[in-house]
Amino acid sequence: MTILHFGEHSVPYADILNARVNCSFNTAEIYVDIEVQGGGVMSLNLPDSLSFMDAFINHIRSEKNITK
Q1: What region, left, alpha or beta, does residue 38 occupy, with left being phi > 0 and alpha being psi -120 to 50 degrees?
Q2: Reported pTM
Q3: How would DSSP label each residue in 1-68?
Q4: Are β-strands 9-12 and 3-6 bridged in parallel, bridged antiparallel, or unpaired?
Q5: How far apart are CA 14 and CA 9, in angstroms?
Q6: Which of 5, 20, 29, 63 could form a disulfide with 33, with the two C-beta atoms 3.0–4.6 Å apart?
Q7: Model pLDDT, residue 40
């Protein structure tokens, strides 16, 4: 099971129900809010948002059999 680690938190990817991405091209920032089992929402800081998106993009590439 893949687990997202950020700060003092660890969340299994299987517990993530949805992710909302907010990005700004002008400030070169991306922020992710994740909705987890039980109805909680976690707002990730910039470094954790980037880690989450990197892992998610790799997951999409793997699932859809897309090479770089």
Answers
A1: left
A2: 0.83
A3: --EEEETTEEEEGGGEEEEEEEEETTTTEEEEEEEETTS-EEE--HHHHHHHHHHHHHHHHHHTT---
A4: antiparallel
A5: 15
A6: 20
A7: 92
